[in-house]
Amino acid sequence: MVIILISAKIICVMRLNRKTIIYYFIKLAKQSGTPESISRGVTIGLAVGLVIPFGLQIPFALPLAFVLKANKIASVTFTFITNHFTIFFIYPFQCYLGSHIVGAPLSYSSLSATLKHFLNYLTSGEATFKQSYEELMLLGQDILIPFFVGGAVLALITGIIGYFTSLYLIRAFRNRKEQRKEKRRLKRIEQIQNTNPPE
User: Per-residue DSSP letters for 159-189?
Assistant: First the structure.
């Protein structure tokens, strides 16, 4: 029930529609690099976005992208799975999930209340890197351990799904693009031949 509620809230907040999804997917598929490097970038972005707290993510995502030879833009872009809107639902849920995994269950409502000040501070635009880290440490291990455990589990799941889904879709998009180019090339050749028939 908690999962369904959170998923519904995230979808409503992000207000995604088919046209928007297609637009951003095409921009992603047109990125330079192989489909594999772009998909690695997607995975890195999703993983960092869920494991590393909001506001501290890009300094982790970019070095990982360099080391793993992943697309840098995709790596940074997909960290925004956690943003000013979604963290109010994702973070309490990943703490809720993590607390059950480590055997110290916490309720979603209590986690939302506990995290409210921290999340408001993160999204205020006033927090520096150091201040964000200090505020995070003030939450205490009862919250921090479930946060990172839950985040790691979600990162693993979304990372695998994100990699193979984006890899399949990008390959399919590029193959269709090549097929269309080839059809246009053949059509031009046919038109030239019809215009200048052999004697």
Answer: HHHHHHHHHHHHHHHHHHHHHHHHHHHHHHH
DSSP 8-state class, residue 53: P
The residue length of the chain stands at 199
Block residue for tokens 């909001």:
54
Quote the pTM value. Answer: 0.78
The string of pLDDT tens digits covering residues 158-194 is 999 999 999 999 999 888 888 888 888 877 877 777 7
The token duo for 135 is 């505020």
Tokens of 90: 């994702």
- Region for residue 125 given its phi and psi (left: phi exceeds 0; alpha: psi -120 to 50; beta: otherwise): left
User: Which amino acid, 4?
Assistant: I
For residue 187 the two structure tokens come to: 């059509």
The H or E element containing residue 75 is: helix 72-77
